[in-house]
Amino acid sequence: MLFEKIRSEILAHNSYVVGAEGEAVVIDPRRDCQIYAEIAESNDFKITTIFETHKNEDYVIGSRDLARITGAEILHGARENFRFGTSVHEGDTFRLGPLELEVIETPGHTVESISILLRDRSVSADPLMIFTGDALFAGDVGRTDLAGESKRREMSEMLYASLHEKILPLPDGVIVCPAHGAGSVCGGNISDREYTTIGFEKAANPILSMSKEEFVEYKMNEKIYEPPYFEMMRRLNREGPPLLYSLPHLSAYSARELRSLLDGKAQIIDIRSPTSFAGGHIPGTLNIWRDGLPIYMGYYLNYDDPIVLVDDFNLDLDRVVRYCVRLGYDNIAGYLADGFAAWFKQGEEIERTGTWSPSDLAEHLDDPSVYILDVRKIGQREEKGYIQGSHHIYVGHLEEHLSEIPEDKRIVVHCDVGYKGSIAASILQKHGFSNVINLLGGTIGWEAANYPMIKEEEELYAAPAA
C-alpha cells in the first residue's frame, strides 16, 4: 500500500496519495500538482482517480491540472453544481486492488462536502482511515459561516449531524486525515498534531463533547475572519480554475522601469522583513513578509493588475510564485532586478517607518499625542489581553476603517511580534499617514519586558480611583 501526505506550508493544506497494485488516487491536490505525478512515477503507480472533498475556499484546487497530465477522473460531491468532474454520492465505492474507498456525504462546512473512508480488504473489513476534508480536524471542526450568516445555523446543524452520525461512530482506531493542519483559516483553532484518530478526537476534542444545542450556539458565535479572496476561490473551484501548464515566468525590472510602474496600476509588494522595510523602502509599497504572503495577500491584492516583488537578494522566488498561483494570482509579473539596493543606488526617494521597542512605548503610554493601534485578530485580543489604551482594527480590515484613525497623532501599530504590524504601517503610509511607528516585538516583546496586558474583565471591574 502506498500512502503519502503532502503538506503545503503556510496555508496548512494537506493532500494525500493512496495506492495499491499499480493504481493511485489523490485527495485534495494543490494547483502546482507535479509533486503527485512524481510520487506516483517513483513508485511505479498510475494516478487514476482524484477526489475533491469540497470546493475549498482558501486555495485553488489542482484536480483539473492533475487530470490533464495523468488522465485521471475527477470525483466530487453531488450537492454543488461543479462545471467539471463527476458527482459521487453516499455509499459509492471505488477499488484499488485490495483497497476500498467509500464515499460518505458529510455536509456542514460546505453543502457538498464528502469524506472518503478507506479499508484494506486484504487485512480486514474494518475501516483503516478516513479523509475528512474540512469536516473534522485535529482538535477542531470545520467553520460553518462560509455560506453566509443566513445559513450559518443550518450549516452548523448539518455539521453536527455529519460528525455524530457519520464520522464519530467509526471505530476509535480509525486514522483521521483532514485537509488542513494548524494555522489554516478553515478552522478556528486546529491543533498542531501531524496525525490523530477517531478515538483520540472523541477523548480530547472539546467541541465533540458538546450537545447539539451547545455545538450550534458555539458555531453561531465563532469569530473567524474571511479573507475577501475566498469568493474568488469559490468561483474558480466551482467552475474549474484555468489550467496552469507551467509556473508564470517573472520579468526582471530595472529600478528605472519600476519607478515608471509606480504611476500605473502595478501592485508592488515588498517581501522583506519588518526591520528591513522600516529602514528604507520604495514609497507607497505594501510590506508583506515572504512567508506571510499566502495568509495576507488575499486581503489586499487584486487579480488583474500585475504584481511586482521587491526583495533584497531575490532568492528562492520560485517559492513565492507557488504561493501566488495556489491562490490564483497568475498576474504575478516580475521583481526588482538586483533587489532594493538597485533602488537606492539610483538615488531614488525612499520612505521609512518608525520603530519602537516596548520600553519606548511604555514611556509614551500616557502621551495624548500617541494613538496605539492593535491589529491582531480579535480572538487574540480577547484571549491574551491588550496594551492599556490601545484601539483595535484587524490588519485585514484596516483599509475599510481608515476614517477611524486620527491623522494628527503619532500612530503606533502593533501585533503579536511585529510582522503584521509592518503590514499595517505600510498600509497607513500608503494612505497618507505620515507619522507611523511599528512596535517591534509586539505583545510578546511587551510581556517579555514585564509590561502588563489588560484583560476585558480587569478593566470592566477595576475599582475606581480614590
Summary, kept brief:
It comes from Methanoculleus thermophilus. This protein is 29% helix and 23% strand.
Explain what this protein looks like in three dimensions:
It comes from Methanoculleus thermophilus. Residues 262-352, 366-455 form the Rhodanese domain. With 466 residues, this protein is α/β, with parallel strands linked by helices. The chain folds into 3 domains: 2-239, Ribonuclease Z/Hydroxyacylglutathione hydrolase-like (Metallo-beta-lactamase, Chain A); 251-345, Rhodanese-like domain (Oxidized Rhodanese, domain 1, 3-Layer(aba) Sandwich), CATH 3.40.250.10; 354-460, Rhodanese-like domain (Oxidized Rhodanese, domain 1), CATH 3.40.250. 29% of the residues lie in helices and 23% in strands. The protein has helices at residues 34-42, 63-70, 152-167, 198-204, 212-220, 230-239, 255-261, 274-279, 293-300, 317-326, 340-345, 358-363, 378-384, 419-430, 442-448, 456-460; strands at 2-8, 13-20, 23-27, 46-52, 73-77, 86-88, 93-96, 99-105, 114-120, 127-133, 136-137, 140-141, 175-178, 196-197, 251-253, 267-270, 286-287, 307-310, 332-336, 354-356, 370-374, 391-392, 410-414, 436-439. α13 links the parallel β21 (370-374) and β22 (391-392).
Question: What tags apply to this protein structure?
Answer:
single chain; 466 residues; alpha/beta; Metallo-beta-lactamase, Chain A; Oxidized Rhodanese, domain 1; 3 domains; six-stranded mixed beta sheet; 16 helices; 23% strand; globular; disordered C terminus; hydrolase; Rhodanese-like_dom_sf
